[in-house]
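Protein fold
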Amino acid sequence: MIEILSSSQLPQARKAGAFVAEILQTMKQRATVGTNLLDIDRWTKEMILGAGAESCYVDYAPSFGRGPFGHYICTGVNDAVLHGKPHDYTLADGDLLSLDLAVITGGLAADSAISFIVGDARPAESVALIDATERALAAGIAAAGPGVRMGDVSHAIGTVLHDAGYSVNTEFGGHGIGSTMHQDPHVSNTGRPGRGYTLRPGLLLALEPWVMVDTDELVTDDDGWTLRSATGCRTAHSEHTIAITEDGVEVLTRI
């Protein structure tokens, strides 16, 4: 299903996006050396339920997971890049942490992800990974707009990632979003310009470039959810929910 919002729904979409961004920034500030991933999940739960909002993850049970997910936020550490299931792990200096969050408030969902390094260490490889996904996300946003083909957005994202020296996995990418978290159209992180669905005002998209240092292959943890790099290399993931408007693009999940 591809859902097109009316102009009257956009203010609520903005509120949902701002709330997701607020939670992620709060968790980033709290995620210090010695923080447990289960604490991050608990704090996220408190913020969501305290606002009368709804988690997109707790009861989420797609075909690719061993569901329901049962937690409020995805926490991927180092080689874990997608669907990281919170568990009893204490963050260490230099860990690369990816947080992915989707919440419904006022009937609309927003989805965003950030990656950052915990503590004072700044491993060059991790810095480069995060930078590449953030630049690819910015390129995808810049390419989007009314009348643009989806392939143009995917091409913009993929060009940045490939030019940075990373291969691109096409199993998982961005997606449409609205009254539910995952909708059509799919947004691949690489593609051919001039192809695919034509973007329309009222369409919400979650763009989410992610990469791994030296592979494009994933393996799944025994928890049935957490996806890691097949080689154990580090990974990074950046995501924003955007709205296609009459005259361009609005980023809904940016502080």
